[in-house]
Design a protein that fits this description.
48% strand, 8 strands, 1 helix, EC 4.2.1.108, Jelly Rolls, 3% helix, RmlC_Cupin_sf, mainly beta, single chain
Length: 130
């Protein structure tokens, strides 16, 4: 059994500051459960481009308001508490934050916590299992 609080993660290497966003990585690949689980906040006024080429991400919005734009189709969706979106097609997307967003995110395969977004907004592919 794993029990963690965001309080104990704050200020550790599991607390990743991306400038206009912050991700508290509650569960990571090293925990060995097949997914990672994060609390992510995006600052009001931020416009963030992401593209998870090697991961499926599910996002549950619990606070704030914004817009999700599929950069491949131009389709836009309102984001607010109670909205879920699933990036099951590795879509290039932009999150525009109007009021600070707080979201819970699940990644499969799990992230290690050491990934850095590249110039396209993507994480590198996961390392092969040993």
């Amino acid at each position: 059994m794993i029990v963690r609080t965001t309080e104990e993660i704050t200020g550790t290497d599991r607390d990743v500051d991306g400038g206009s966003w912050r991700s508290k990585r509650i569960i990571l690949a090293g925990d060995g459960v097949g997914f990672s689980f994060h609390e992510t906040t995006i600052q009001e006024g931020a416009v963030c481009d992401f593209h998870y080429q090697h991961h499926i991400e599910a996002v549950w919005v619990v606070e704030g308001e914004g817009t999700l734009t599929n950069r491949e189709t131009g389709e836009q969706h309102r984001l607010s508490a109670g909205t879920m979106y699933l990036l099951d097609g590795h879509e290039r997307h932009t999150v525009t934050c109007e009021r600070q967003l707080r979201m819970f995110c699940v990644f499969n395969p799990p992230v290690t916590g050491q990934e850095v977004h590249d110039e396209t907004g993507a994480y590198p592919p996961p390392a092969p299992a040993a």
